[in-house]
Amino acid sequence: MQDKDILRVRDKWSGKVKYVTPLLKGLQYTFTNLLSKHKTIQYPEQKRPVSRRWRGLHRLEKDNQGQLLCVACGLCAAVCPAQCIEVVPYEPENGERFPEDFKIDELRCIYCGFCQEVCPRGAITLSQVYDYVDYHREDFQFSFAKLDKPEQLSFHYQRSLLQKILG
Fold first, then answer.
1. Boundaries of domain holding 120
2. Cα distance between residue 58 and residue 124, in whole Å
3. Given pLDDT bands bounded at 50, 70 and 90, which one contains residue 108?
4. pTM as predicted
5. Would 143 be classed as within a structural domain?
């Protein structure tokens, strides 16, 4: 028997053994994640919970009688860095003051929350709605109707029967 006929296992596997340990660690990680609870949500049907501090679409708050809390002081429009708020004040003869027109351009807004912080009456707040979609720029100009209940503007997706069957 010659030296070339002897199979030396140590020399044959010496460079390849260093690949086995990371392979086994990777397989272990894969199998532990395979058996764990899934973290994926089916977005249009299920929405992820957002924190209480989330800054979404704007809302104009009302008091118990249904009157706007806003007195059209204009502080929100003055402090807004994006200049996306327009307030037109109206003051009748009785001395009360309220906004005749209140518009927010949601496309220009950077959702910084300054308008909410500066309001002395707490009339403007930021809701937790984060998925408002539309097709036209004009639809992102919010006035009294849209600022009343922004939760109605949240994206609602309806799956067709075929999509429900196929998964």
1. 58-153
2. 7
3. very high
4. 0.70
5. yes
pLDDT in tens, 126-149: 999 988 888 899 999 999 989 998
In a domain, 7, yes or no: no
Q: Mapped to the 3 state alphabet, what secondary structure does 107-164 carry? A: CCCCCCCHHHHHCCCCCEEECCCCCCCCCCHHHHEECHHHHHCHHHHCCCCCCCHHHH
Total structural domains in the chain?
1
User: Could you tell me the CATH number of the domain that includes residue 75?
Assistant: 3.30.70.3270
- For residue 73, CA distances in Å to 97, 100, 138, 157 come to 9, 12, 26, 39
Residue 135 lies in a domain: yes
31 inside domain: no
Cα 67 to the center of its chain, rounded Å: 29
CA distance 146 to 22: 56
Cβ 84 vs Cβ 77: under 8 Å = no
